[in-house]
Amino acid sequence: MNPDNILRQTIEAVRPVGHYIRAQRGQLSEADITDKSRNNLVSFVDREAEKKLVRALREIVPSAGFLTEEKTITTEDRALRWVVDPLDGTTNYVYGLPIYAVSVALVNGKDKLIGVIYVPEWDELFYAARGQGAFLNGKPIRVSDRCDLAQALAATGFPYYEFRHEACYMRMFEHYMHTTRGIRRLGAAAVDLAYVACGRFDFYFEFDLHPWDVAAGLLLVEEAGGKTSNFDGSGDALSGEEILASNGLLHDQLLSPI
Ligand code: IPD
Ligand code: CA
Ligand code: CA
Prior knowledge:
Layout: H1 3-24, E1 34-37, E2 40-42, H2 44-60, E3 65-68, E4 80-88, H3 90-94, E5 101-108, E6 111-119, E7 124-129, E8 134-136, E9 139-141, E10 153-156, H4 166-179, E11 182-184, H5 189-197, E12 203-207, H6 211-223, E13 227-229, E14 242-246, H7 251-254
Parallel strand pairs: 3-4, 10-11, 10-12
Antiparallel strand pairs: 1-2, 4-5, 5-6, 6-7, 7-8, 8-9, 12-14, 13-14
Helix pairs in contact: 1-2, 5-6
Bound molecules: D-MYO-inositol-1-phosphate and calcium ion (2 copies).
D-MYO-inositol-1-phosphate binds at residues 69, 85, 88-91, 157, 187-189, 206, 209, 213.
């Protein structure tokens, strides 16, 4: 397995799928959109995009399994697997907001090897391979160098279908509302993480996501010089249950804020 080749081929697999998603934006009607569960929308675009990705990715590393949001394929039993969110930010997408992304990672157990996030509306392609830095459209990216929380711009995702952590989330939200420059909610976790990686956000926090929302973005942040963990720093964020991603300089002061 040559990581450079895998990364190059993964980028070649992801980009056309982003173009497909963008091209379909005007074609969607209400009848195409269904609720998988409460506030969890899906359309044929998510599923078609996933199928296209799976077809291309299985050629790149035939021995790798898949963990994909839309479950068009299930081979989760292998340690080496692709972790795929074909369309992160579906609610934005179906409401006509241009903030959404394709997110693909290759992981081996808990090790993130490759991460690619493509934001089609702005033609921004973020990518990283373990140990080789992070890039945006071919140029190296770094996290921000802000170390004063009062100057930090934060990103988050609000709870919208799972409310068991609502009280805790609201306390964190209130704390950061009072101690930072401000908080943004873009509606696409992959974009939030890519933006931490390139320094547009200083940190990002969210509860109750899934590996496909975060795998590629966590590698991007780490390869761009940042830190990722759960909220008290005792574990990693790959499960998606608790995600704290920062420029690294702020990380210790962000742990267990309340
Ligand atoms: C969602 C987005 C959103 C986050 C959600 C995710 P989806 O992914 O990343 O920002 O708050 O929890 O589920 O469903 O659009 O792929
Ligand atoms: Ca997602
Ligand atoms: Ca999705």
